[in-house]
Amino acid sequence: MPTDLPNLLTLARIVAVPLLVLLAALQTPWGDVAACALFSAAAITDYFDGKIARERQLTSAFGRMLDPIADKLLVAAALMLLAGLGRLSLLGLLPAIVIMLREILVSGLREYLASLAVGLPVTRLAKWKTGVQMTALGVLLAGDSGAGALGLGLLPIGALGELLLWLAAALTLLTGWDYLRAGLRHAGQQDSARANAAPKELSRP
Fold it and tell me: pLDDT value at position 120?
């Protein structure tokens, strides 16, 4: 297993998932603060592992495989915790569902396009989506109880987190549609190429 710094940072995000679950499950104000801090630190490593890998030319197949997996595990765990612990309102559940479905969609598209040796590049808008999404989840993990422990009880932290989650869901729909169009375009090209090749094969003696 590669042990360079970028891959270690990626692995750290995976290790953070069970710790995040444990801290959030405590359902105490300082447990929520710790869960927010841990999630935020793990989210920041997503930026630095890619930056370091590019600057030091440490990119690897292992890193390209594991990086999106680590991201999705972290996001999925946070969303399921917030929903399962009743930290989201009914309206807050809707953007959470949108984000989860988009992650499944993109994972399927990446798997299909990988079979065609076609990459699915991350767009600038997708990077903004990730930033807003991670901020929203961090705020929601802290919640009103964590804000109270930090002396910020007068701020509507829960409502602010859900507002950011809606913004993340909107960006998620935009980027998901871009990725879906790319997948459909390549699928159409494959079907056209197969259809054009079929008469030639049938006409052979």
Answer: 61
> What's this model's pTM, rounded to 2 decimal places?
0.82
Q: Report the pLDDT value the prediction gives residue 127, as an integer from 0 to 100.
A: 84
Taking every pair of Cα atoms in the chain, the longest distance, rounded to a whole number of angstroms, is 83
pLDDT reported for residue 3:
66
Summary mean pLDDT of the chain: 83
Q: Which of 60, 95, 49 is nearest to 75 (CA)?
A: 95
CA pair distance 42, 10, nearest whole angstrom: 9
Within a 13 Å sphere around the CA of 163, how many CA atoms are in the beta-carbon half?
5
pLDDT of 95 over the 60 cut: yes
State the alpha helices, DSSP H only, in the chain.
5-26, 29-55, 61-84, 90-115, 124-149, 157-203
Return the number of other C-beta atoms located less than 10 Å from residue 42's C-beta: 25
* C-beta atoms surrounding 204 within 10 Å: 5
| Residues 32, 138: Cα–Cα separation, whole Å | 10
Handedness of CA 124, 4, 45, 118 (dihedral sign): positive
Please give, one letter per residue, the 3-state secondary structure of 133-154.
HHHHHHHHHHHHHHHHHCCCCC
What confidence score (pLDDT) does residue 202 get?
A: 47
Cβ atoms of residues 139 and 164 within 8 Å: yes
Rounded to 5 degrees, what are φ and ψ at 118? -115, 130
